[in-house]
Every structure is written in structure tokens, then in C-alpha cells.
Amino acid sequence: MLGLPDIGLTSLSEVASAAAQITSVTSLPLIVDVDTGFGEALNVARTVVEMERAGVAGIQVEDQVMPKRCGHLDGKQVVGIEQMVEKVVVAKEASTRGLVIIGRTDAASVEGFDSAVERARAYVRAGADMIFPEALRNADEFREFAKKVDAPLFANMTEFGVTDYISLKQFERLGYKMVVFPVTTFRVMMKAVERSLQELARRGSQKGFLDELMTRKEFYALIDYDAYAKDDRAASRRAEKILDTN
């Protein structure tokens, strides 16, 4: 959204503001990727406070070294297990509204599968409500991880990464409770924007792809335009009534 790469450049205030915008228009539970928690343990505590203030249901905190990298790229590093355990402990202590703490480990592609399992178990003991093993490669690895880690498990099914394409039903059979498709809709949207701008540049008109656009009626229904207009009319009637009384 900000046109920045996934290397920890966004700030806590930027992410909290975006989260608050989302929770203001939906009652669905929102999970926010807070990367490494925007710093050390004390920063994680403040992150929890700000996320709860924004109405967030859960956060995922990862064990990468800052500056972090996208979980499916090479060159990642992970902090010591003690440092991440401290972050999980502090996150749980800072929560006053039952924020779900998802402990993410990137260790599988850095230190190996066994290290990811060891770290996940430690994060569970520290209080993590859910575990997110990032960048496992295939169904066999996800299955083996689920056998070895006794906790609700979270999976990332991103595109163009190191993970084989696995369906929701497959993940469910493998023992995973939640699956995120983190930028799927964003990639679809950006590709559509690119195509429409190319078409406008070539033809100078949108007439040729009107069937690909959300109609005015559909868009107004999505943002509940009529409800706002109704409230505005009602306010005008109340004002008129007050003036007539005077």
C-alpha cells in the first residue's frame, strides 16, 4: 500500500493506523503482521497496546533479525531463541483484551527443520496462542511439523514462494487451523490496475473493459452509500423541525 518492500520499513504508527481503518468498517477479526514487533521486547509490549487500541484480534510476531526480509526470500537471519521467547512473554503480559499472539519462526530455511520445531515448542511454552512455521516447502514438512508441535497451527499459502501450492482442505487434513493468503487479492488488484491503465493508454477510453469494472450500483452497495444518504436526509429533517418550532 505504501509502495515499500517487505523489509521492516513501515512504522508501528503506520501499521496501527491502517489496522484501525480496517476494523472501523468490519466486524470480522483482523490479524496483523507486525514483523519483529518493531524492535526489542519493550517495543513489542507497545505494539500490543497499539494493536489492541486499533481493535485488532491477533498479531503475528516473527523471530527474524532486523532488517527482516520476506519469509520466502534468501538471506534471512533469526535472533537467538531466548530473545524471541522474551518477546512472546512480554506480548502476552502486555495484552489486556485477549489479543491472540501468533509466534512465527523463520528458522526452517535458516537453521533447519529441527530448529524450527525446537523454537516453536519454546514459543508455545512462553505463551504463544498459535504457531506459524514460515516457508515450509511441501505437505510432508507441514505434516511432520504438526506431529511435533502441540499447538494450533497457522500456515502461509503465498504465491511464487518456496511452498508448494496446498489447498485449504489439504491444510486442514495436515492439522492446520488457519491459513493466510497474504497478498493474493493485492496482486490481483495491481494486475487489473496495470491492464486497465495500459488499455487507457492504447485506446484513450475505458469503454472496452466496462464489463470488468464494478458498477456504480455495486460500489455504492459495498460502501453502504444509501445508509449515509438516509442519515443525511434525516438530519436535515430534524434541523427543519427545530427551525419550524422556533
C-alpha end-to-end distance = 51 Å
Low-confidence stretches: none
Residues in β-strands, percent: 5-15%
The CATH topology of the largest domain: TIM Barrel
Q: Major β-sheet, in short?
A: 4 strands, parallel
Structural class: alpha/beta
Radius of gyration: 22 Å
Across the major sheet, the strand order is 1-2-3-4
| Residue-averaged pLDDT | 96
- Helix amount: 40-55%
The number of distinct β-strands equals 6
CATH level-1 class of the largest domain: Alpha Beta
Give the helices and strands as they follow along the chain. HEHEHEHEHEHEHHH
Q: How would you describe the shape?
A: globular
Number of domains: 2
CATH superfamily of the largest domain: Phosphoenolpyruvate-binding domains
Number of helices: 9
CATH architecture annotation of the largest domain: Alpha-Beta Barrel
Question: What does this molecule look like?
Answer:
The chain has 2 domains: 12-182, TIM Barrel; 186-245, no CATH class. 48% of the residues lie in helices and 10% in strands. The protein is built from 9 helices and 6 strands; from the N terminus they run H-E-H-E-H-E-H-E-H-E-H-E-H-H-H. Strands 1-2-3-4 form a 4-stranded parallel sheet. Helix 1 (12-23) packs parallel to helix 2 and helix 2 runs parallel beside helix 3 (81-94). The mean pLDDT is 96.
List the defining traits of the structure above.
single chain; alpha/beta; 10% strand; 246 residues; four-stranded parallel beta sheet; globular; two-stranded parallel ribbon; TIM Barrel; 9 helices
Please render the helix and strand layout as text.
Elements: H1 12-23, E1 31-33, H2 41-53, E2 58-62, H3 81-94, E3 100-105, H4 113-126, E4 130-133, H5 139-148, E5 154-156, H6 168-174, E6 178-180, H7 184-203, H8 216-222, H9 225-245
Parallel strand pairs: 1-2, 2-3, 3-4, 5-6
